[in-house]
Amino acid sequence: MAELTALESLIEMGFPRGRAEKALALTGNQGIEAAMDWLMEHEDDPDADEPLAAPLGHTLGREPTSSEQGPESSAGEGKPILSEEERQEQTKRMLELVAQKQREREEREEREALERERQRRRQGQELSAARQRLQEDEMRRAAEERRREKAEELAARQRVREKIERDKAERAKKYGGNVGSQPSPTTEPGPVPSSPSQEPPTKREYDQCRIQVRLPDGTSLTQTFRAREQLAAVRLYVELHRGEEPGGDQDPVQLLSGFPRRAFSEADMERPLQELGLVPSAVLIVAKKCPS
């Protein structure tokens, strides 16, 4: 019995004839191992079973030459006769080779799958780390913005307090010792005539004056001032303690006497409390000052 050709060996191993012929043709008839490698690599190709186009010699109606037929055309020439046992042994070796190729392919695919999984996990970890860094940066920027706004707010409040204290100190220094006199920017200080509604001052001298201020919301403030302090000190105290109103900036306030009814002017703000008849105690009403 003659030795099996490569085509016969592939068919014996279970490959379809058309696919085996195609593998041998595409590998240049370089042997069964090359054909088996091609078959394993293209096992899942959708066109693996499609036949190849007919050679040029057949298309033109001529037989291919010995050089075109390749080594398989002379495979049976001059080859020894194999026994049935040798043929079975050869088939067994071929099957072992196919199994080995299959194992190698499975191992390769498993390694590729593991590598893809490692890459997927690595990309997921990198993405998670980047997202966490972004969140931390946003939280840090928000905290810095809050600290900056708080520092600016505290600095603004401090500047307001300092300005109020400076104004108060300047007024106290300028007018604190001039009892019963009103300064004028162009004339010498002189006595200011009392308004018709002003009560006559008491003959007793008082050092302090207790002022109760009623706010527009119904609440009241009570504070003791020096009798020689100006009415502007009372207005400053009210502006500092009346609380913040919704809507932004505070409007200036106007002070009114309870009885007899009287609205104090800006000129009255520079006059001492005892000169305005507010000593030893008085009740004032706060009304919002209409813009001029």
From TrEMBL:
InterPro entries: UBA (IPR015940), UBA-like_sf (IPR009060), UBA_UBXN1 (IPR041923), Ubiquitin-like_domsf (IPR029071), UBX_dom (IPR001012). It is found in: Cytoplasm. Keywords: Coiled coil, Cytoplasm. GO terms for cellular component: cytoplasm; nucleus. Residues 82-118, 133-173 have a biased composition (Basic and acidic residues). Residues 204-286 form the UBX domain. GO terms for biological process: negative regulation of proteasomal ubiquitin-dependent protein catabolic process; negative regulation of protein K48-linked deubiquitination; negative regulation of protein ubiquitination. Residues 37-208 are annotated as: Disordered. Its main location: cytoplasm. Signal peptide: none annotated. Residues 1-42 form the UBA domain. GO terms for molecular function: K48-linked polyubiquitin modification-dependent protein binding. This is UBX domain-containing protein 1. It comes from Rhinolophus ferrumequinum.
